[in-house]
Amino acid sequence: xxLIRLVMDxxxxxxxxxxxxxxxxxxxxxxxxxxxxxxxxxxxxxxQDVLNELDExxxxxxxxxxxxxxxxxxxxxxxxxxFGDVNYExxxxxxxxxxxxxxxxxxxxxxxxxES
Length: 116
Known about the structure:
This is ISLre2 family transposase. It holds the Pfam family UPF0236. Belongs to the UPF0236 family. The protein is α+β, with helices and mostly antiparallel strands. The mean pLDDT is about 90. A hairpin with a 5-residue loop joins strand 2 (about 85-95) and strand 3 (about 100). The chain has one domain. The chain has a 3-stranded antiparallel beta sheet with strand order 1-2-3. Helices cover about 50% and strands about 25% of the residues.
């Protein structure tokens, strides 16, 4: 799974930062800053991957999205997280019975229209 590889790569980077601190290449405050950046990037990447996987899961689960058909895919959105801005893409659906349109992913994760 791509997410596991991503996490492993980031933790190898953390390990590298630890060794650089221990061999004197960094001061402790520099190490903290580097660590914060790596972990924030990891948080953003994990959130983005999870959102993309959830969108795919909704799309593939015909029972959960009964009466909804995709009218557009690749719709970009940015949300603010504790790790920083997370960019993701989702599908826009139309209900075959009511004509209502919605981003089912946004509904599933509880994000309101125009919320960041």
